[in-house]
Amino acid sequence: MELAERKRRLRAAMALRRGEVGEDEAREAGEAVARQLAAMPEFGAARRVALYAALPDELPTAAVYRSARAHAKPLLWPRVGDADALEFAPCPRQEDLVPGRHGVRVPAPHIPAEPLGDGDLVVVPGVAFDACGARLGRGGGHYDRAFPPGAAAPLLVGVGYAFQLVETVPCDARDRRLDCIVTEAGVLRSPPRAQGRGPELR
Q1: Enclosing domain of residue 64
Q2: Region 165-187: what's the mean pLDDT?
Q3: Beta bridge pairs of residue 165
Q4: How is residue 173 annotated by DSSP?
């Protein structure tokens, strides 16, 4: 089966599963993810946090937003800018975000984007993840292009429901792997491949 078809089937299966999540389950999972993330040393050390405003079928990020505010972390949010490229701009209050593409709330266009780098932590959405840090997105490739494989990048943390963690995510060399994945069940770390170690769940 071709890679594109495998991705399509996994996206379809995950869309059905996400549709089964009730409001209370979603809220509790979002709060659990926020607690897991806040307990990470990397979160405490992060100089800035890049978050995203979740769509209705995604794990809610409102609790992560409240946690970042409580820890006085400067917040940036993704926005699709020129040439269909993903950029990040500051916005301290989520309620000041404006409607963007596909109903996603983003920083207002007049707010200048800021580069991300070492010391920053980026919360990354995904459709599915695996233990090696592979991520399946919605198909636009925006995060993969923003943080290409092999390039220096801030800490990339995927968040989602525990059921979004699958055995294998179909991917190729263009797909950027994550540093860790946080679900309501725990934190799954993807150590450097050079160490020859498997992932650690705590």
Answers
A1: 3-193
A2: 93
A3: 129
A4: T
